[in-house]
Automatic annotation (TrEMBL):
It comes from the Bacteria. Residues 196-237 form the RNA polymerase sigma-70 region domain. It holds the Pfam family Sigma70_r3. Gene3D superfamilies: 1.20.120.1810, Winged helix-like DNA-binding domain superfamily/Winged helix DNA-binding domain. This is RNA polymerase sigma-70 region 3 domain-containing protein. GO terms for molecular function: DNA-binding transcription factor activity. GO terms for biological process: DNA-templated transcription initiation.
Length: 245
């Protein structure tokens, strides 16, 4: 697959995932095949696409079972949270549109009401992002913050029909950003741990040779590591590297 095809493949894959989000996280097999028709993929390559989508909780032909991605603790939390939300009064389409129009006009009571109307949808959206390293409660929290901000921004829309799409997108973007930040933090933590382990290992080796704890200067001279690298590692470990004094 040439570079241009790889770019097109990635673009089409994103379009399929975006389409799934618009269809309760579900696409038909034919929609997938149509999306990749221009790339002349083999059946085995298409099967890889289907496997990828299923791995990312996109149902093929029918919605995926999202609960299987939840831990027992998350299931318990979800059950209790849903009980709280059950007290939220439902509204019909006309009443909901009236609330949206009032929220668009800047009425705070309507904005607050709209937040409560969409809280159950935030829960359902959070299940799409479960199992990616962020606890469900945190995802819901991020979604609720985005929802609270979103209802204050509806005045920029031309009609009430655009409101739901805007709010749902903001909630999804917030959860995706939360997951991305968690991944970045994990990568950072891994790099920090690797640096600390490197210094600790070298200090242990030298201390074993000298039969005593070693100084930063000695470790730097013997290993070629800079004093800053060593002291940074000491600080990041909370000065817990046993063989350094």
């Amino acid at each position: 697959m040439g570079e241009s095809q790889e770019i097109l493949f990635a673009r089409n894959l994103k379009k399929v995932r975006d389409l799934a989000k618009e269809q309760e996280n579900c696409v038909s097999e034919q929609q997938v095949r149509d999306s990749f028709a221009g790339l002349n993929l083999s059946e085995s390559q298409l099967q890889m696409v289907f496997d990828y989508l299923k791995k990312h909780k996109v149902g093929i032909g029918e919605p995926a079972d999202l609960d299987e991605y939840l831990s027992e603790a998350e299931m318990d939390y979800l059950e209790e949270y849903k009980k709280e939300l059950a007290q939220t009064q439902e509204v019909n389409g006309g009443e909901k549109e009236a609330v949206i129009l009032s929220a668009m006009a800047g009425e705070r009571a309507a904005q607050s009401r709209l937040i409560h109307l969409y809280l159950p949808q935030v829960v359902e959206i959070s299940r799409l992002y479960a199992g990616q390293g962020v606890f469900l409660e945190d995802l819901i929290g991020e979604g609720n913050v985005a929802l609270s901000l979103g209802v204050t921004m509806l005045g920029c829309l031309e009609n009430a029909g655009e409101a739901e799409g805007m709010l749902i997108k903001m909630v999804m973007d917030a959860m995706e950003s939360c997951i991305a930040e968690n991944v970045r933090q994990q990568d950072k933590d891994k790099k920090v741990l690797a640096r600390v382990n490197k210094v600790a290992d070298r200090a242990r080796e030298l201390a074993r040779d000298l039969n005593r704890k070693v100084t930063v200067e000695e470790l730097s001279t013997e290993t070629g590591m800079s004093i800053k690298e060593i002291t940074d590692a000491m600080r990041m470990s909370g000065f817990a590297i046993e063989d350094l004094q």
